């Protein structure tokens, strides 16, 4: 076997491959993303994912995962959140397990929210860096992974941006079927609507019959 060294892909080349893969998944899933969703995805990509998706293999691996599993849950979740959770599962499995373990804290449910509010934003941010380190995140990627998490979960966003967000922000997460809301969190980790949950599409059909 002979080792063949290839040049590192230029940023413009990786951008072309990522855009093509992203468009292919959207088309195969029959989706239309609004400008807000595209901007949210673009911002996270520019701030961190771009630095991690640097080879054709990594790009194909990532979008292959999205394409394979999105059909199982479909429009019962927010597509951009599903893409980002898939990225975490694919490239940061330790963080993926951590997120599931911290469901109550990340969705602001139970007493965890009251307990967390006793810590300053700086203290919470320090704790998150320690958690990510324990979860196996490379030190060079810690801030980038925090950026991804802050785009998904209000408590991380609050610590990361040094801002306190009220209940209205959690309500908006519910309207958009975001992973940061307790009613939708589990759908992102079970590859479908859990048996104890009721699909939004079933509710819509029931309401239509009543009307």
What's the gist of this structure?
With 211 residues, this protein is mainly alpha-helical.
Total helix count? 13
What proportion of the residues is helical, as a percent range? Answer: 55-70%
Strand elements, count: 0
Rounded to the nearest angstrom, the radius of gyration is 18 Å
Sheet having the most strands: none
Mean pLDDT: 92
Order of helices and strands: HHHHHHHHHHHHH
**Beta-strand content:** under 5%
Q: What gross morphology would you assign?
A: globular
Low-confidence stretches: none
Helix-and-strand structural type = mainly alpha
Distance between the termini: 69 Å
Layout of strands and helices, then pairs:
Elements: H1 11-28, H2 35-52, H3 56-70, H4 79-91, H5 93-101, H6 103-107, H7 112-116, H8 121-134, H9 142-150, H10 154-161, H11 167-175, H12 182-185, H13 200-210
Helix pairs in contact: 1-3, 2-9, 3-4, 4-5, 8-9, 8-10, 9-10
Descriptive tags:
globular; single chain; 13 helices; mainly alpha
Describe this structure in words.
By secondary structure, the chain is mainly α. The protein has helices spanning 11-28, 35-52, 56-70, 79-91, 93-101, 103-107, 112-116, 121-134, 142-150, 154-161, 167-175, 182-185, 200-210. 27% of the residues are buried. The mean pLDDT is 92.
């Amino acid at each position: 076997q002979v080792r063949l060294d290839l040049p590192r892909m230029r940023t413009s080349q990786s951008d072309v491959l990522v855009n093509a893969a992203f468009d292919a998944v959207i088309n195969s899933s029959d989706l239309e993303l609004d400008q807000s969703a595209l901007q949210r995805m673009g911002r996270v990509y520019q701030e961190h994912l771009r630095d991690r998706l640097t080879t054709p293999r990594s790009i194909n691996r990532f979008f292959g995962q999205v394409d394979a599993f999105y059909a199982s849950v479909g429009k019962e979740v927010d597509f951009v959140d599903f893409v980002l959770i898939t990225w975490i599962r694919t490239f940061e499995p330790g963080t993926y397990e951590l997120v599931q373990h911290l469901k109550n804290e990340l969705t602001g449910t139970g007493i965890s929210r009251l307990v967390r509010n006793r810590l300053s934003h700086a203290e919470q941010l320090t704790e998150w860096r320690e958690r990510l380190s324990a979860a196996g995140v490379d030190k060079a990627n810690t801030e980038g992974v925090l950026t991804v998490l802050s785009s998904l979960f209000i408590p991380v966003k609050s610590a990361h941006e040094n801002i306190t967000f009220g209940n209205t922000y959690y309500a908006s997460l519910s309207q958009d079927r975001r992973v940061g809301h307790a009613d939708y969190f589990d759908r992102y980790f079970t590859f479908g609507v859990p048996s104890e949950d009721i699909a939004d599409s079933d509710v819509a059909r029931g309401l239509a019959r009543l009307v």
